[in-house]
What we know:
- This protein is mostly helical.
- 61% of the residues lie in helices and 3% in strands.
- It folds into two domains: 1-90; 106-140.
- The protein is elongated, with a radius of gyration of 24 Å.
Amino acid sequence: MNIDVDKILETGAKVVDSAKKTAVELAQKGKKQVDLLDAQAKKSKAERQLGALVYSLAKNGEENELLVKKYIDAIAAIEADIEELRKEVPAEEQPCEAPAETEAPTAPEACAETAKKTCPQCGAEVEEDALFCNGCGAQL
Ligand SMILES: [Zn+2]
């Protein structure tokens, strides 16, 4: 029997290589999907924050065009990211446009536990996940 060891080794190496490559490709594709989901979640969060800001400004008869513009710019940047990611994730694997609002109404005790943080620029109390300070507009 004449076994071509080199050939077997070569074939084996090729199989390992392609398996490795597929795993990496899958991982990269998965990461893009995660990035896309992240970006969509970030966008809806920023939109909610902008909505809350505009509401509180309007309610108090105030204007803060600069801060509103900052939010709009931030959301536009996230939208651009989403567009880029969309091109890289196959259509059938894309998460739906608007993730369902799964957050349950916050229980009173959970509200009390919500940690408030303060703006490093002006010391104003800001929401934990706010993008910008409502007081001075600093990026948080
Ligand atoms: Zn501030």
